[in-house]
Write a structure and sequence with these properties.
6-stranded antiparallel β-sheet, alpha+beta, 6 helices
């Protein structure tokens, strides 16, 4: 019985490809030739559409419950691999509706966040040894690049992020791996992460 489990585990990466090969072979033999190209085209378009829907859902899952995202204004994400030591970082900027799903104003939801400017903590950048605050304006690159895996952000996005973390009038929540910024005045929700 253990041999069967080991066999399933070893063959699990290969089985979908074998199934796909057998399916293509079956259709190649049974379906008339003029229908093969349109069916293949439809299959490829369907897979691309499913991937895009999944990717959009993945992007929107970072928006907290209650906010209504209208569209993604900017998204830049990158990763260094699938290994346990792999690092990833990203920035997502969403345009949000003026009201929450419960019909409350954004200011009401923002009360659960801290007010900007962001207060520098040991979680802001990767500090070696004893952490000492810098007492200068914060730079979003210090947060994103703290594990030596940086992003190339557009200059206008970099300027917007730095303004939003250093100027009053916005709200934020800072965790070990992520920073969220809510701006009711600009109707923006920003999710920045570095892991």
């Amino acid at each position: 019985m253990e041999f069967l489990y080991v066999l399933i585990i070893v063959l699990s990466p290969v089985l979908p490809w074998v199934f796909l090969f057998l399916l293509v072979r079956y259709f190649y033999k049974k379906v008339p030739r003029p229908y093969l190209l349109p069916m293949g085209f439809f299959l490829v378009i369907s897979l691309i559409y499913i991937y895009e829907l999944y990717h959009k859902e993945l992007l929107f899952e970072s928006v907290p419950y209650g906010l209504i995202p209208e569209k993604i204004i900017y998204s830049n994400e990158d990763y260094s691999g699938f290994t346990p030591s792999g690092r990833e970082s990203g920035v997502r900027i969403f345009r949000i509706a003026e009201m929450t799903k419960d019909g409350k104003s954004l200011e009401t939801l923002a009360e659960t966040f801290s007010k900007t400017p962001v207060i520098e903590t040991a979680d802001w950048g990767l500090q070696m040894g004893d952490w000492v605050p810098s007492n200068t304006e914060l730079d979003i690159d210090d947060f994103i690049c703290r594990y030596a895996f940086c992003l190339d952000l557009r200059p206008d996005v970099l300027k917007l992020l730095n303004e939003m973390i250093n100027e009053p009038g916005h709200f934020y929540s800072l965790g070990r791996y992520s920073l969220v910024i809510l701006s009711p005045s600009k109707k923006l929700f920003i999710y920045v992460y570095a892991d």
